Amino acid sequence: MGCGIMGTVGKVIAVAVLYGAFSAGAKPKPNIVHIMVDDLGWQDIASHKLDGNPVYETPHLDRMTREGRRFTQAYSPAPSCAPSRVAFLRGQHPVNTEVYHVSGGRIPRAWHKNSDRICPYYSYGLPVEEPMIPEALTRAGYITAHVGKWHAGGKSAGYPFPLDQGFDFGFTERDGRHKYYNDEDLWNPEEQNRNTFFGAWASPGMEKRLSVFATDDPNDPYQVNEKGRPFDKPLDLVLGFMEKYKGQPFFMNYCPYEVHGPIQTRDKKRFDNYVNKLGMEYPTDPKKTYYDLPGHSDPYYASMVDTVDYYIGQVISYLEQTDDPRNPGHKLIDNTYVIVDSDNGGVHRFTDNAPLKGGKQNTWEGGVRIPFLVRGPGVQAGSICDTPINLIDLFPTFMTMAGLPRDEALELDGCDILPLIHGESDTAFYADGRERESLFWFFPWDAHMSSALRKGPWKLVRHYGAAKRKPDVRLFRLYAGERTDDLSEARDVGDQFPEVRRGLLEELDQLIAVAGAPVPFDNPTAKNADQAAVAAMPNVLDLGSEEDRVWVMLESGNGKAEIENARLLYTLNPPPMDTIGGNREEWLSAPATISQGRVEAVMPPGATHAVFSMVDANGFLISSEAMPAVCDVGHHAKDSELLANGFAYKPGLYALIKLGEQAFATTGDKELKAVLKAAKAKYAAEQIDKKIMCDAIRSLRTAIRSQQGTPEAAHPLLNRFPTEPLF
């Protein structure tokens, strides 16, 4: 992982030969093109509109519906982008990836002091050591690419990047070492005006969205083509990659930035079309919004749906018109699976998911039910599948497409749905042969904080209590036999079917418990908190540290609840180690041990601050240092700056010195020895100066990283923020 595309081609070809990708007489492995549109709603494709009166024009997706297979009950793993993308790439439910929302990597605390529940800690992205789809496909001889939105890494510019996670070719949304990859065939440095990183989606800001339409000026980076369509660099990269590597099996993970906000378009012709189609006066104020209008009524959003449909059409047209070098006499489309889906439901401010309830950011059907189309070899044209599926199913499905055997070590949660794609089955089966009977979601985000389970005709939604919503459990019957019953989740039938409600709730709680995912914690400052339980909550008595060990002492006995769960949360990059002032401060997790009245842990090397996050027997969240509610300080406040103690600097520096000594024992490097001596002197100083401590940690990290070939140099915490010069 981590190598550029020019260095991987020989490796990929060698692997392809090893796996018979070019064996004479063997059926060539199919190409796989996965297109994940950002925030595309279930009703946004014209031919899928249940009322038969579409506003958005999607001729290419409509044709794909006619020529491929539509899954009417496809679901995203989460109602938000980051957890869905991570779950898809990893093939696991969010309860197992531990990525629940895009705002992860912070110390858990109440959103408001009166919030009933507190969201548990969760990660911002997936660690580099976790396997992803491209790593498996590479073993089958595929060359792999990711173009477009990533959102599967950490806060350091998106690291780990696609290339770190096994892709041969990567193009992602943040600055850093993998923004400009080493393939000038696709990214021509001489075409600076065309190298628009976000493509036509790039936002000029709301105040300019009526004045930045693309033109036919050759100097316009979005210069319109003969069809009047603005140039889009990500689409250009997708087409260029397929053209360059059409002679071997390829996997393209194409993730357009559309139709995510900011809601704007560079295509004036299409915008004018929708203004007229909706019978509106042409807007004169670029900040005018259409949030309060019913149905599909935003001409900017309509233009974005129209645009992404055009992108998809260009990809399919290329595959239809291009000869397949591995399959003489055929076009690439004849041996390519094309899958189109969305990372979550549509945003109800901009589109309308009706008859589904809700939208992105909640577990109602509108937030998790998504469009899903597939076209490819063996796929019956115009066919429909009503079996519920989930995007986590694509990892094992792609493996089967590539001819790979089952790999238990991957610990995949999804089902191989290739038999459903081919119409050979209407049931999804796990790898061990068990029939899948249910799908579930765990979304403990502050604003919605819920979980849900879909089983047969039933949908159970459990709200833990967040914002102004009180805890509740609701049961809906989405279907009655072959017909729809309550897709809008408008009628809670839990009282009519108490046994169904109880059984589904037990199953949902068990699924979450087996994964070890912590459910939202009780907030002791809430008005509705059980005061007897609050009185039993153990108070923090003292914090302490010695060398690299840190601990917290709490009340114990005398009617005080005992601590049942604990972990150490720590950061490596406080504001002094971040060129953008701490906006990327990320908190990670380490194990802690519990004994009566004491919780302790070993500080990770180079950690600058830490806090113990603990849960008592009554379910209350306790921090080793009191944390203010998010609303009291603003969600942009840096956690490290809210801590009075935080075990600041010295324990983490000590742990880093130990790591450096291990490296020195192997290499005997004189420069490392000098840096270690300086770090020890700074550790011994009585006064803690954060600049001096940060300089010492940074210098020692650099010195250890220079000991190439040692395990210490490759330590993940020394390489967590590779694009940050202050790290």
Automatic annotation (TrEMBL):
Is Hydrolase one of the keywords UniProt gives this record?
A: yes
- PANTHER family reported in the protein's UniProt record: ARYLSULFATASE FAMILY MEMBER, ARYLSULFATASE G
Q: Organism source for this protein?
A: Pontiella desulfatans
Q: Name one GO molecular function term.
A: arylsulfatase activity
Taxonomically, the superkingdom here is Bacteria
**Annotated stretches, region: Disordered:** 707-727
Record PROSITE patterns:
SULFATASE_1, SULFATASE_2
Stated name of the protein: Arylsulfatase
- Keyword hit for Methyltransferase: no
Q: Which cofactor does it need?
A: Ca(2+)
Q: Which family does it belong to?
A: Belongs to the sulfatase family.
> What are the alphabetically sorted keywords of the record?
Calcium, Hydrolase, Metal-binding, Signal
Pfam families, per this entry? Sulfatase (PF00884)
Q: Gene3D superfamilies this protein is in?
A: Alkaline Phosphatase, subunit A
Which ranges carry the Sulfatase N-terminal domain? 30-403
